[in-house]
Amino acid sequence: MPSSAQQVPPAPAVLEPLPARSDTLTSLVFIAIRDRIVDASLPPGSRVGEAMLAAQLQVSKTPVREALLRLRHIGLVEPGRTGLRVVAPSAATIRAAFELRSVLESASGRYAASRRTDREASRIRRLADESLDAALAGSVAEFLELDRAFHLAIAGAAGNPALCRAVGDSVVLTLALRQRDVRVDRDLVPDGREHVEIATHVVRGAANAAAGKLEDHLCRIGQLVLAAFPGRPETGP
Fold it and tell me: Cβ-count burial of 39 within 10 angstroms (0-12 exposed, 13-18 middle, 19+ buried)?
């Protein structure tokens, strides 16, 4: 007689086949919605529905749904009474975003200093030098692109994909909030000089120095952004 274990039927399948989808399309939809939040085409507090956005972007609901899930995870949209809505300007939101980013990037700097390859070290150094050159030349748009690439390069060199993704999301949030909610013209040269100092620590393998300087760098910028935020100032990161 078969044993009781042999008589147990196999569990029925409960997962449906995944539909074919384009990750590139989802990324494009994410960027489009993010940019409309930044330029306030989607104003703070406005509802963001799948059907409306899919119709305007002329895509199916699937990439819109995936993009909105990421935007919610990042913190640019939040639950409202009737679905998701664009997050409203808030000094507390900016402060929390920079606090989180400073912690994440401090960790990425520590690991990058210990794990970076020679090729990664060379790229980090180059991006730091180019960001300082752009700041000295007053090329704001070029500096901002190099600034983003520099921080993501360090995160990538940390050798931890989960941490790298978290840093990437944090960078998206802080940059979006700065561009949308704070209008400030400031000297970017100190940022570029700090990039060079951070890169030097990473290249030399000085883990504690790299972690500390990255945290100080982001805390300083967070404080400047908060000081320029309209309304009652709050304590910075």
Answer: exposed
Rounded to whole angstroms, the Cα distance separating 115 from 186 reads 34
Dihedral sign of CA atoms 9, 14, 20, 21 in order: negative
- Single out the residue in 86, 108, 138 at which a domain terminates: 86
pLDDT in tens, 92-145: 999 999 999 999 999 999 999 999 999 999 999 999 999 999 999 999 999 999
Mean pLDDT throughout 79-103? 94
DSSP single-letter state for residue 85: E
Task: State the alpha helices, DSSP H only, in the chain.
Answer: 4-7, 23-38, 50-57, 61-74, 91-115, 118-137, 140-157, 161-181, 189-204, 207-228
Q: Say yes or no: 142 and 36 in one domain.
A: no
Nearest to 184 by CA among 144, 225, 148, 220: 225
Residue written as token pair 């799948």: 50
Residue numbers of the domain that contains 121: 91-228
pTM of the model: 0.83
